């Protein structure tokens, strides 16, 4: 091919390319095969049917549905809890960067708040559960820090990972009953800004442990 036409393969020969394109236009209503919607749909469907990854995904989804009632593990109630980032400062572990920022802010100001070791009991489905607020302030006030996604339209806590989880409502009622102060983004922003000014915009990476 190279010696006869000066090209490594037939698809590089102008005459051949033109003949092939003209043939395709005749077969596909004046457009090339790759431009024909029917051809593209057929190629896409063939890829889907022959895709081993797709077959594995369907098998996995079927298994999860049979075992857990959901099609993937990210829909399990405790999945996001297990995936949560952890942070460490001064030998203490924190469940979120917001809790970390809140603690460091007051630590730097020599205000001795502490992570709560006090719990409140509440009943749900005829069982007694324990609720631990995030912090106890020196004045004895309990503080809970939550992202705005956990706040329902009526201002109550909700489980964004499992909206049907009524236990969250019982937990919120327990917090309200014991005068726990719940802080959301607008309340926490000052502490996040403090961390960014002190440690830089990537401050979370300095304390992340997973």
Secondary structure layout:
Layout: H1 2-5, H2 14-27, H3 37-50, H4 52-68, H5 79-82, E1 87-89, E2 92-94, H6 97-108, E3 114-115, E4 120-124, E5 127-131, E6 135-136, E7 142-145, H7 167-177, E8 181-183, H8 185-199, H9 203-207
Parallel strand pairs: 7-8
Antiparallel strand pairs: 1-2, 3-6, 4-5, 6-7
What does this protein look like?
This protein has 210 residues and is an alpha+beta fold. It folds into two domains: 74 residues, no CATH class; 124 residues, no CATH class. A hairpin with a 5-residue loop joins β6 and β7. The relative contact order is 0.09. The protein contains nine helices and eight strands.
The best one-word shape is elongated
* Rg over C-alpha atoms, rounded to the nearest angstrom: 30 Å
Query: Could you list the spans in which at least 5 consecutive residues all have pLDDT below 50?
Result: 78-83
Distance between the termini: 58 Å
Biggest beta sheet summary = 4 strands, mixed
Q: What is the share of helical residues?
A: 40-55%
Instruction: State the domain count.
Output: 2
Mean pLDDT: 75
List the defining traits of the structure above.
about 210 residues, alpha+beta, 2 domains, four-stranded mixed beta sheet
Question: Can I get a quick summary?
Answer:
With 210 residues, this protein is of the alpha+beta class. The chain is built from nine helices and eight strands. It has helices spanning 2-5, 14-27, 37-50, 52-68, 79-82, 97-108, 167-177, 185-199, 203-207, and strands at residues 87-89, 92-94, 114-115, 120-124, 127-131, 135-136, 142-145, 181-183.
